[in-house]
Amino acid sequence: MNLKLSHIDKSYGDSKTKRVIFKDMSATLVAGKISVIIGKSGVGKSSLLNLISGIDLPDKGTIHIGDRCITDFDDSERTIFRRRRIGFIYQFFNLIPVLSVFENITLVAELDNTPKDVFLPRAMALLETVGLADRKNDFPDTLSGGEQQRVAIVRSLANDPDIILADEPTGNLDSETGLAVLEMITDLVKIHNKTLIMVSHSPEAMGFADHVYAVKNQSLVPQTSGLDVLK
Amino acid sequence: MTSVLFKICFRLSLRHPLRTALMTLGIAIGVAGVIAIDISKTSITKSFELSTSALTSRSTHQIVGSDFTIPQHIFTQLRTQLGIKASAPVITRHVNTDQLGNNTFTLMGIDPFSESHFRSFETIKGDRSRPLDLSSDRPGVLISRRNARQFNVKLNRPIYLRFGNKEIKTIVAGFIDTGDVNSRNPADGVILTDIATAQELLQLGDHITRIDLLLHKDDIDKVRQILPKGVFLVETNKQNQVVRGLSQSFETSLTAFSMLALFMGIFLIYNTVSFSVARRRHINGTLKALGASGRQIFLMVILEVFLFSLVGSILGALLGIGLGKGAVNAVCTTVSDMYFVLTVSQTHISSMTILKGVLAGITASFLASIFPALKASRAIPITLMQRSASERAVQNKIPIFMVTGLLLISCAFMIFKIVALPPAYDFIGVFILFLGSSFLAPGFVLLISWASSGLVQKYGKVLFKMAARNIVRSLSRTSVLIASLMVMVSVFIGIEIMTKSFRASIETWVDGHIGGDINVSSTNELDRRLDFDLLEQIQKLPQVTELSAYNIHRIYSVVAGEVHIFSYIKDLSEKQWTWTVQGPDKMETFLEQGWILVSEIFARKHAFNPENEDTVTLETMQGPVQFKVAGVFRDFFMGGGRAIVSRNVMKKYWGIDEITSMQIFLNSRDEIEPTIHRIKEMIPGTKMIKVVSGQSIKQKILSVFDKTFAITIALQILTAIVAFTGILNSVMALLVERKKELGILRACGAKSDQVGRMMIMECGINGFLSGVLALPLGVFLAWVLIDIINQRSFGWSYDMVLSMGILLQALLLSVGAAGIAGIIPAFQAGRTNISRALHME
Fold it and tell me: What is the value of pTM for the model shown?
């Protein structure tokens, strides 16, 4: 399902300290593709992901995911939508430290009261795909950074969402591990036919992208060469 | 400390006003509890002094009678035969009057010409105050000027004085000058009159209550020689001590409660302050990383805590004064009902009380902060900035905590069993026990968590798993919370068990003591005798199955004050024996042989030790007589205690052969009211005889004892408030540290109410763990209160009644208080700003 942002305004702060992030921003991100978002630090890339996922609401404008207008939802509806339709991968993994690897992966399904016979096999299969089946009962603080990010990737896919949002997924990893993670994310996304929207500074990420967009001048601008924006 | 560090503290406090307010409130409540109970205690002491100082005098000795009256010719003999001019006759009797607010006063009859050596009443005639002048155109009484103004009583107006069921009319003949009308004076509890007027009003004939004396050593024996049997010379100081001892028991128990409130306050303050300091751990680490010295960090922490504790303690002092004032009336009423009539009650707020409370608040805050402050000043920055480092440090120290806890608990046991401290100071042992248990808390939490992990894993849903595991993960925080809540719930349990056990024992005693369906007694203060004809008539009623008749005679004991002597025609009361020389069924035989039976309080006050085969001495009409004791029974009558003698002994030694009360047993409860009616018909209208159901007397007695629980109920309410505040403070602090995790949960798709439920579950689990740990501690505290405090303070014993209901109630309180305290944090958790929380690092 396509993602359509229409006339989005978003700013932070009060009247004295107001910072405009987006001004009348409109864009359509194609379903089933890998879109990479680039831009300078502080320009609003993470804010864009927050808006898409319903974590945050725009001051003006609408966001359609498929035929659903998530800006019309209340907090509860947005949460449920996010739970079922969107998976999130963070720079700092953000695993729940008191849950084991497997419990982290099944967290969203359990929050959604999905029957165990539906989500357990799927979660186990995904875990095997990333090579961590033998660590399923371990806790996050015993895993390396790369392993934690692999768990986070699986978590994002466990509830079979339509869209994966990744916010600097390799930002906290060394280049070799980061590349491996990128490959893993993009492979899984393609295999499961998901839409991936990834914020990244990494040039390697650009190589996996079907589309590149830059956040600049308070808008989202399609790019032909991502490196130009970073200059 | 540099100003920038102070600025950081100040702004952080302002930025989080709710947390700042909670911390201050936590300290304030801790201090308020201590001060309120201390005010009650010191007010009792002061009220007692005011109530008794008008009655006592500058005398060195007093002549008193074993039946509380002496013939006035003894006074004449002292003056004429022995030439002892420093002597004054006195009559005293407690009376009530509606004209003065239905309060209790001491009607005091004195001879103004004899008073100059002993008392200094000033009376007001016209506008002038002058030395004691009882002359008047019409005989009457004098009341204090303060009371006259307060109740708008004018000169020469009638005033009705009640004692027992008798009411006498007299007039207000003048006023006693009590100085400043705004402050309480001992004379405010006195209604003064001439001794002849008092004899007439009280129909004492030629008897008086006592004679006050200023005696030289050489005159003591001379005076003793002229005294008839049943009248004796006592030292005033010793008499005051006997009377004073009555309220000291109550004060001792108040001291005990005051110390309990102090401990709870200390734990609450420790909980509050340690969380507050811990919250700043990350900032302190950052400051150290940036170059702040250890000393600067230490001073910053300590100074901030000191300022908070000062503000909190001052607020607590104000709150405590308000609570204390409210409690004083209830407490004075209890003392008056149970122990000694306080004719003057005064709220006394001493500077020592305020200082004690404020110092407790500041000291507890300081002690709570010193360890975290030292840790912050000495630690390398990264360990302060990483939460995991501090948690690991706590978990590594658990073996040391366990050993420390066990050592402290052993110390506490030694204090209770081996070291003989004054009763209220047994509470030092209680405090050490609390402290030891707190050190054990983290270890027990880990143990329970480990033991239940399988069940949690298997059956728990994800939010419950998170809630349960978060407790162990944040052990450095949750163990402080659990330990504090454990102490508070154990205080609740201890007091609940004590009061329930006490009440159960009182009920058993009342049922045994007032076993009859109907009770008949005289209300004539001057002549309490019942006719034997009435006894025979009642015995003939067909519905009467048994009848017990007895005489109660009050005697004066030099060592114990007022003692009640009972002699039965047929003793049908059921007693709980604490000791008998042979089997309880032999007691009647021993009584017939001239032995006596005594109550526990009597035995204690007369230092009776059955192991030494002691005897006790009673003052009789034939002088002091030693009696062998056949048994000691449980009894809750205060004063000097009770003794039971045979009818022959009563007649022989006190010249009394009458009966003053009857207990009637019927074959059916349905017959009670008709039988009461029938008996009343038998009684001539002129006789002042009361015929009531046994049940109504029991209810009346129980209601008097129920009033004694007012202070314990107040303490339990304080416990609940303290527990609630402590948990709220702690959970709010934990919420701040969990922001990111809560943001992740919300981002993953947890709804606000799901996050909130998790917080409340976590609070509930904390409450449950605290409650479970509090159960053994609370039972032990109950044992201390019952066996040590009550036994040593009051001299009575009662069995501990331990019911599952009380324990369950305490557990529910713990879980409930924790759950309710979790509501606000749960609401806040649900409203976590997700994007901000996610980007925290």
Answer: 0.79
In this structure, which amino acid lies at residue B223? V
Of B388, B740, B747, the CB nearest to A55: B747
**What's the average model confidence in pLDDT over B170-192?**
75
| CA nearest to B239, candidates B465, B556, B630, B10 | B556
The CA–CA distances, whole Å, from B199 to B97, B209, B460, B524 equal 18, 10, 82, 16
Closest listed residue to residue B160, CA positions, set B99, B104, B117, B212: B99
Predicted local confidence at residue B649, as pLDDT: 94
Closest Cβ–Cβ partner in A98, A110, A155 for B461: A110
The predicted-structure confidence for A188-212, as pLDDT tens digits, reads as follows 888 888 999 999 878 888 888 899 9
Alpha-carbon distance A208 to A201, whole Å?
13
A-to-B residue pairs, Cβ atoms closer than 8 angstroms: 74
Q: What is the DSSP letter of B789?
A: I
Distances in Å between the Cα of B358 and the Cα atoms of A100, A196, B322, B332, B368 are 48, 62, 15, 25, 15
User: Between these two residues, B346 and A154, which has the higher pLDDT value?
Assistant: A154
Q: Is B747 on the interface with A (CB under 8 A)?
A: yes
Q: What is the dihedral of CA B421, B426, B431, B436, to 10 degrees?
A: 80
Are the C-beta atoms of residues A10 and A22 closer than 8 Å to each other?
yes
For residues A18 and A203, the answer to whether their CB atoms sit within 8 Å is no
Under an 8 A CB cutoff, do A94 and B744 touch? yes
Amino acid identity at B31:
V
pLDDT at B841 over 50: no
Q: Note the pLDDT of residue B119.
A: 77
Q: Which residues of A touch B745 (CB under 8 A)?
A: 96
Q: Which one of B744, B759, B827, B832 would you mutate to disrupt binding with A, by most A Cβ within 10 Å of its Cβ?
A: B744
> Any bridge partners for residue B616, and if so which?
B627
The identity of residue B676, as a single letter, is I
